[in-house]
Amino acid sequence: MTAEIQAWLPELLRALRPNQVTQSPSVLDTHSHDESYHTPHRPDAVVFPESTLDVVRIMEVSAKYGVPVVPFGVGSALEGHVVPVKGGITIDTMRMNKILDIRPDDFLVKVEPGVTRVQLNDALRKYGLFFPVDPGANASLGGMAATNASGTTTVRYGAMRDNVRSLTVVLADGSVIQTASLAAKSSSGYNLTGLFVGSEGTLGVFTEVWLKLVGIPEYTVAGRAIFGSVADAVKASTAMVGSGLSLSRVELVSDVYIETFNRIEGTDFAVKPTLFLEFGGTRGSVESSIAMASEIAEDEGCVGWTAVDDPADRARLWTVRHEAAHTFMKQFPGYGHMATDVCVPLSELPDAVHHAMELLREHGVHGGIIGHVGDGNFHLSLAVRRDNEDDMTRASAVNSELVKHAISVGGTCTGEHGVGLGKRKYQALEHGKALDVMRAIKAALDPDDRLNPGKLVDA
Amino acid sequence: MTAEIQAWLPELLRALRPNQVTQSPSVLDTHSHDESYHTPHRPDAVVFPESTLDVVRIMEVSAKYGVPVVPFGVGSALEGHVVPVKGGITIDTMRMNKILDIRPDDFLVKVEPGVTRVQLNDALRKYGLFFPVDPGANASLGGMAATNASGTTTVRYGAMRDNVRSLTVVLADGSVIQTASLAAKSSSGYNLTGLFVGSEGTLGVFTEVWLKLVGIPEYTVAGRAIFGSVADAVKASTAMVGSGLSLSRVELVSDVYIETFNRIEGTDFAVKPTLFLEFGGTRGSVESSIAMASEIAEDEGCVGWTAVDDPADRARLWTVRHEAAHTFMKQFPGYGHMATDVCVPLSELPDAVHHAMELLREHGVHGGIIGHVGDGNFHLSLAVRRDNEDDMTRASAVNSELVKHAISVGGTCTGEHGVGLGKRKYQALEHGKALDVMRAIKAALDPDDRLNPGKLVDA
Predict the structure, then answer these.
(1) Which ranges does the record mark as transmembrane (chains A, B) (predicted)?
(2) Contact A215 B343 (CB under 8 A)
(3) Which tens digit of pLDDT belongs to each residue from A406-439?
(4) How distant is the Cα of A17 from the closest Cα of chain B, in angstroms?
(5) Which of A168, A100, A103, A164 is nearest to A132 (CA)?
(6) CATH code given to domain A1-216
(7) Which of A188, A410, A445 sits opposite B181 (nearest CB)?
(8) Which positions 397-436 of B are in contact with A (Cβ < 8 Å)?
(9) CATH classification of B219-408 is 2.160.10.10, yes or no?
(10) Per-domain boundaries in chain A
(11) Which residues is A22 bridged to in the sheet?
């Protein structure tokens, strides 16, 4: 233990109860990494606050001794967001896991940041409501807010930023703010909620999150549309989005995944680019949406169309999509997964996907494409041996070329995974002088650079 | 002309063409006020930039001589936003009125800030697309972005903040930034777009605005539902919003407006609280939505229901709503209009509306209620003689009580009109310590306080 740590640790122990602070090596290890390929780094201590006041006390110690803090949810981040690259205190929100206030008449719920997505939706079911953002992982809602997470339902319901009404945030100096009122809309003051959502722990620590809720649709149908080419599938998806259908998901799965799935799972799905669709709403709206969607698909050269409404059939239909990356990786035992995450304007998507497939071939990297094509966001799942320098070099080259192409056509280096450590090097290219504005905001709100230092704007 | 102005005016004239700068008294007068009751104040000069570069040159003069600048669209603001309370330069964007780039496949359009809402929708019609935010007035899109404007369609499509993809902004020092890429979603960097939208000219001057577009619905139906009480009408509205219907507008008009309309226009509409509705989508979704909406209305005690799809009939049905404030004011020749603008959580709306009606009685002020009830936002139209101190005192008391009530139940002092001069005094009450964060951001981006000084966070 360094002299520095010897100074602040006793004060942290006094500020909290003994079982809220640990330096156990295994706990430090758990908090040294997320699910990404980035190099782990241990914090000096991990704390488990149980209230906003606990977080205030932690931030006061941080302020007094200049100790870095890193908020931590379930550790499912994909770009090294929670790696405490400068050590210090990791604030694990796992004990802040209460659903504090369900207000069905306001379509709002207040949760602590450690509540997970599945936990929340289980509690909401009896009200006929749900929280629609679905990044796949059963992430914590605080973490999802911190990275502006999104996913398959974003084409209909938006990303986290669209679905957080207000945040309670503990700032660098330990003061506590509410970022907004509970009104459905407001033109009062600057939009702090939108600024803190996606700030990745670099501006403050979230201790309460008010989320918007929506009604569970009366009727839901899942569909699958098979195309001769990725370009046709993307054109169909764009036309469906433009037609204002009751579309709640539209996902592209490239043929390489389907081929793998067939081989490993013994299925015989057509090995072609496939759109996985979901429609939700009143029965009438869903039925007319499906009719229109199948017409659009046919116009764009769809060679196979299925639609099912039974819940079990729907789940089965979506399996290939849900298991795509997982099944793909089964082919490569001992390999790790590197996920790319660009998002481009819709009109650029066919070219961007084509370019991505060329990159895989060119650099000899194993990978496939999954796309949230309604939003122009797609991922390559790259299979890499993390300790193999050549693998990492080639995969990083693919990622880098992909990002540069996306930015050159008006897109972004990250559609939903966030910046963390992995996308810092592209911030200047993507944002230009706007990065200086972001840095000015960071400097104004965290002048000592204690809040998740080394991330996001620290490029 | 003061010595101060004598210093910067020649430089401004050199930076622009002569016909871009004026001190004509009538032009200064036009730019001394908006549509509100706030005390006018003249700028020292009005400039008419024609490009981003012109605005850069203006900001460079502003920076060199410390001259305040106030951006100005069409002057339809309702809280004194464009009143140059400290003089200086008003930047009128009327010549920046070009639609620069329509991208139907991306559902995006790039406009200069002086383009108006109606101008844009006229140009978009042939693509089957429209820009959905509708504040009533034919405002400039730059002004709408600056105040985070919204209106009758917000229940379906959101406010300006939800519909601006990216902004080109000239900052206080004359540097130019792009706030975001054109990707439909991004987790890259801080959300500058959302921060600048609603910043009311206090953080930078917008010179280009990328807006999101949506498809014109295949089928549209207008409806009217009459209720025995405001509480019943609001309950029905909330239930409709929660059911995920294809609802594109849901507006409450209180009986006082309907009574006035009948009296002045010779109509015989039922003098009761009335919901004006619009449904849009595929024919199937609209038809099933109407069936469900009328059932919900009936459950909540609806005493009269009409639905029409012919465009002329729809326009006629909506007349009472569109003309409500205007017709109401006809009763009070010589009186001006003061609009209140609170927004509360939906569950608080019946109480808030009841409380508002009590306030009108208690303070003896002429007024009626119009509500964007799907969002919890409602306006009182107060008839006041602006030069009558007693009128102004009583109307201001109503406004102030209304705001305090809204904030006390988790609402906001302004749902869509913005802060400007009129809502500054409530910023501390609404935002608490978050106001310090807003001020820190303002100080970081405009350290000399030259961008629309005396507004918003200057409370």
Answers:
(1) none
(2) no
(3) 999 999 999 999 999 999 999 999 999 999 999 9
(4) 28
(5) A164
(6) 3.30.465.10
(7) A410
(8) 406-407, 410-419, 423, 426-427, 430-436
(9) no
(10) 1-216, 217-321, 332-416
(11) A46
Rounded to 5 degrees, φ, ψ at A96 are -95, 70
**A398 phi and psi, to 5 degrees?**
-60, -50
Q: State the Cα angle at B316 between B310 and B318, rounded to 5°.
A: 105
Helix axis angle, A349-363 to A230-242, nearest 10°: 150
The CA distance from B93 to B20, in Å, is 11
Contact B106 A149 (CB under 8 A): no
Instruction: Give the domain A217-321 fold.
Output: Alpha-Beta Plaits (3.30.70)
Q: Which two tokens stand for residue B147?
A: 């105040």
Supply the pLDDT for residue B323: 87
CATH topology identical between A1-216 and A332-416? no
pLDDT 10s digits, A338-347: 999 999 999 9
Task: Give me the pLDDT at residue A3, please.
Answer: 82
pLDDT tens-digit readout, B191-205: 999 999 999 999 999
Name the CATH architecture for the domain at B99-215: 2-Layer Sandwich (3.30)
The whole-number average pLDDT for the span A395-412 is 98
Q: Which of B78, B100, B171, B188 to mutate to test the interface with A (most CBs of A within 10 A)?
A: B188
ipTM attached to this prediction: 0.97
Q: Is A268 exposed, middle or buried (0-12, 13-18, 19+ CB in 10 A)?
A: exposed
Spatial separation of the C-alpha atoms in residues A17 and B420, rounded to whole Å = 47
Angle B285-B289-B295 (CA atoms, 0-180°, nearest 5)? Answer: 155
Helices (H), A84-214: 117-124, 141-147, 154-157, 160-163, 192-196
Q: Which of B162, B415, B432 sits opposite A186 (nearest CB)?
A: B415
Neighbour tally for B312: CB within 10 Å: 8
Q: Is A399 exposed, middle or buried (0-12, 13-18, 19+ CB in 10 A)?
A: buried
**How many residues are given for chain A?**
459
Residue B371, helix vs strand vs coil: strand
- The encoded tokens of residue A161 equal 């930023």
DSSP state of A44: S
Q: Do B376 and A183 touch (CB under 8 A)?
A: yes
Domain B3-92: give its CATH code. 3.30.43.10
CATH class of A332-416: alpha beta
Mutate to test the interface with A, among B342, B373, B437 (most CBs of A within 10 A): B437
The verdict on a CB contact (< 8 Å) between B191 and A198 is yes
Instruction: Name the 3-class secondary structure at B40.
Output: coil
Residue B171 in contact with partner chain A when CB distance is under 8 A: yes
- Nearest one of B28, B117, B71 to B452, comparing CA atoms: B71
Instruction: State the alpha helices, DSSP H only, in A184-244.
Output: 192-196, 230-242
d(CA A170, CA A112): 13
How far is B378 from chain A, CA to nearest CA, in Å?
Answer: 11
B19 touches chain A (CB under 8 A): no
